[in-house]
Amino acid sequence: MQFRELTLLSIACAFLAAYVATAPARADEVKAGDIAISQAWSRATPNGAKIGGSYLTIENKGTAPDKLIGASSDAAGSIQVHEMSMSGGTMKMRPLESGLTIEPGKAVKLAPGGYHLMMMELKNQLKQGDKLAITLEFEKAGKVPVSFDVMGVGAQAPGADAGGKMQMKKMDMKM
Ligand SMILES: [Cu+2]
What we know:
The chain is mostly beta strands. The chain contains one helix and eleven strands, in the order αβββββββββββ.
C-alpha cells in the first residue's frame, strides 16, 4: 500500500518540480551531513488560524536513503509531515506516518498541492516577512534547525508572492 501511494506521489512531485523550477533560485542552503535544505518558506496565516503550511526542498547528496521523520517549532503545538493529493476531484491530505524518504542523489520538494509540513496549534499569526524557526528531524542526518521565510497568504513558491512583490531576503541560519 505504501509503495503504491509513493508511486502516485512521485508523479505528483514530478509535476510540482516542473512548476517550481521556474521560481528564482535561492542562494541559501542548510547542510547537515548528506542532506541539503533550500527554499524554506511558510505561508502567512489569516488572523486566528491555528494551522499553516511550510515548504522546502530537501536534497540527499549521499549514497543511502534518509527519511524526514518529524519536525517541531516553538511557534506550533505540533508539526506533521503531510501529503496532499487529488482523489475523485477532491484535494485530500494525510500524515505520512512512516516519514518522507529522500532517495540518494534525489531532491524532494515540499510545495503547495503536494508534500508539506503541517503546523498545528499555531501560537501566533504568521505574517509576511516573519521568520519561522523549525527543527527538522531526519533518521540519519538528525535534527536540523532551519529558518523559514514567511511569504504572502497566496504565495505558491519563494519569490512568487501573491502581490507580485519579490521576496529575496537573506536567511540567517546558524548550524
Ligand atoms: Cu496538511
